[in-house]
Amino acid sequence: MTLLELTDVTAFYGPVQVLEGVSLSVPDEGAVGILGANGAGKTTTLRAISGTVRSGGKIVFDGKDIRGMRPDKVAALGIAHVPEGRGTLGALTVRENLRVGAYLRKDRKGIESDIDYCLDLFPNLKERIRSHGSALSGGEQQMLAVARAVMAKPRLLLLDEASLGLAPSTAKNVYQAIGRLRQESGIAMLVVEQNANLAFTLVDTATVLETGRNALTGTSAELKGMDEIRRAYLGG
Amino acid sequence: MTKPWVRWAGLLLVIVVLVVAPLVLPQFMNQTLARIGVFAVAVLGLNVVMGYTGQVSLGQIFFVGVGAYVTAYGVNNDWNIALVFILAALIPGIIGLLISLAAARLGGLAIAMVTIALPLIGVPLAKRLSDFTGGSQGSSARFSGAPEWTGLYDDQWQLYIVIAVAGVVFLLTRNLVRGKYGRAFAIVKGNEAVASSMGVSPYRYKVLAFTIASLIGGVSGFLYMVVVQYTSPETMSFGHSISLLAAMVIGGAGSILGSLLGGAYYVLAPQVTNAIDSSLTAVMQGAILLVILFVLPGGLVSLPRLWRRRKREGPGKPAAGSVAASADRSPTPTAPPETPTTEVQEKRQDT
Amino acid sequence: MGTFIQLVIDGLSAGSIYGALALAIVLVNQATGLINFAQGGMAVLAAYFAYSFLQLGLPLILAILASVLASFVLGALIERFLMRRFEQGDPDTAVVVTIGLLTLITGICGWIWSYNNLQFPSLFPLQNINVLGAVVSIRSIGTTLVIVGIMVLLQLLFIGTKLGLALRAVAVNPQSAAFSGLPVGRLLMVGWGLAAGLGAIAGALIAPSLTLTPGMMDSALVYALAAVILGGLSSPIGVVVAAWLIGVLENLAAVYVPIIGFDLKIAVPFILIFIVLIVRPQGLFGRKDVVRV
Asked: Tens digit of pLDDT for each residue in C224-252?
């Protein structure tokens, strides 16, 4: 069952067209990667889905046309966007950040137990539960951002450059936790990553973007085997 | 681009008009034009600090008032008129310098927040220092009667003085803002962090701009006394302060020609709104300012440019630029390209 | 000594009003990033609402509550339909818009209710009591207590409730908040509404002594802005303390420093700012904020 389907999606920053026609689909409980160089339009694709950039084409989530919907409405449908830059609510504590993540939920007990689950998933956050978001390190902020998204009990997680600015070991930790999350919760994921190696530890299939279009699509195994991918993204 | 000879012909025409007009126009028109000139200078001063350098100032009318009071005092004590003129500019300038040295340190909207106090402090201060100012009664000074040898009427003489002085001030300011200082102001207005990184000290240029603005304000005060020949604490009231700011925005922020239009608006608009319905005058003025900000943020002076662009690009929403977006420096569009709505940013938290 | 205590308590009362207005300004600034120069004007309009409700026969306390409600709605509408356009842009432009709004509101007040001074009844009895040998007005004490009470309530709202959490989240990073499903636009409206309501209370409390005129809170705005400068935009507590300081000091200066006297009291906050600035450029309580490029 396809959870998310993009068909010939275009996107614009003002008069400038950044996406020329991107297509992909994410199956229920599946994980799909979006790879490519800087400026290829990976982040913009996620923004088109969450409604934070002007877009065209078709975006269908769970049978509903969501293209052009406001971000908070998209979130209400069950899509959680972990943005590039993390979007940490710096002046709020870690616990408060998590509470914000659960804003749309009404089940107090469920929220509390999910907070515990997140702290278990990301033990670093447990120690910092009372710290302000702005006091966290880059890696901790990334974990917080993912945890906040998880708190919304989403059906689809949009992960934007989760490894950006993180030391390799930290990035690996984050991805391991996300991998565990995927196994235990069955949340579908759309993962934008420049670090293809990391992405392939998580996703089943991926599409490679080049100047706003799909250049290659395939399963992780297929892509890893291709020379172009190896040379361009996997370092050999 | 207009050919050079067209430019020269245009300039010559303007000069001829300026020389001939006072002689042929009726008295009330000369007086009105003179008042427009007075406030065009005041608005020009405000433009230097606000339109060009991007610092909201609610204190310009205070400097005009100080200049007027200095003029009145000097004239009534028979000082040399040239000295009076210099002091009328210099004293407000020094006050402006001191204020900006402190206020500019705070960054952000501090200059706006501090200058709002100037008219509110100025009025009771003027009443208090009655030895200098004549207290609540105000101070009158008649010194701008036309001298015998000119054969002119008073209103014509006064208009010539205004034209001459305002002309010089406008020219000097125009050169200032088109030169390297003007570019520095624009950089500071655009982005202070970028300015610092380029070695352009926002603090220094804010102080410079504010001081120049207050100098020009003082000159405007001198001209005010030439034309009106009377000043009182009312001259620098809070209401006038806001009206002057509104006039600048409506005329055109960051524009020399816009300052002229602003002066005209300042003088003529109350007459028009009063004629329509005097009890609604404040409402109308507030409404006009808001409409301009929504529809024509570059002020009246940007109308021709907008019209030209509309014709070129066809129908479509005009870009909502900032108040001081229009510049008579170069033919650039009034608004920066739309930035993506997705920029994730922490809110600025400074004052 | 008696005079001193009297001046201090009166100063705290005035300072509370300035503080309430300053808090409203800070609230709006944290939510939408701009300084609302019309905050005082909106408070005056609210006081006029209360006045009209009084004319319609409502008891004072209900009239004031109704005006707070009306003010809340008006503040929300102003954010949605007037200010929304300017929130993402240049803060200086937004300030000019608020100045235009101030002119408009003042004009509307003058047009509907005239520019004459109107009598507004006091919420508190006009009696004095004896405190430590000083004669102190109940109104001053009452004003201070009411505003302190409201500030405490606001703090509780922000720290202890889901709405407060949402308001804070939106103030910090509206887009990030939207990703978590927060209705950013609606929350901004609530923020402005709360600020307007706060101003309404301040207006109703100060109107009895100043008498109601369209320009009634122009001076209070200046004091409030001075308190914001001194306290720092990032510190609600700092702003309130600064406001109290201003209120007390200006009263003391008016009496004990003849050069200043009553008519030049308004210069006091700025002398204060001047002095403080030399020592601490970021204000009394503000953090040394990093300007993000």
From this structure: 999 998 888 888 888 999 999 999 998 88
Q: Does residue B48 contact residue B212 with C-beta atoms inside 8 Å?
A: yes
Dihedrals φ, ψ of C83, to 5°?
-85, -20
Where in chain B are the domains?
23-238
CATH 3.30.2350.10 fits A2-88+155-233, yes or no: no
Residue C241 inside a domain? The answer is no
Within 10 angstroms of residue C5's Cβ, the number of other Cβ atoms is 15
According to DSSP, the β-strands at A156-160 and A79-82 are parallel
CA distance C138 to C149: 16
| B238 compared with B279, residue with greater pLDDT | B238
What confidence tens digit (pLDDT) does each residue in A131-166 have? 898 899 989 999 999 999 999 999 999 999 999 889
Q: For C77-83, what is the mean pLDDT?
A: 94
What residues of chain A lie within 8 A of the CB of C176, using their CB? 83, 87-89
Nearest CA distance, C150 vs chain A (angstrom): 23
Residue-range domain boundaries for chain A: 2-88+155-233
Interface chains of chain A (3 or more CB pairs under 8 Å): B, C
Q: How far apart are CA B300 and CA B296, in angstroms?
A: 7
Residue C167 lies in a domain: yes
Q: Considering its fold, how many domains does chain C have in total?
A: 1
Residue C87 lies in a domain: yes
A14/B344 Cβ within 8 A:
no
Per the structure, the complete domain to which residue C177 belongs is given by 21-218
- Contact residues, chain C, for B249 at CB < 8 Å: 96
- The reply to whether C227 falls in a domain is no
CA of B126: how far to CAs of A159, B129, B235, C31, in Å?
A: 64, 5, 10, 39
* pTM of the model as a whole: 0.85
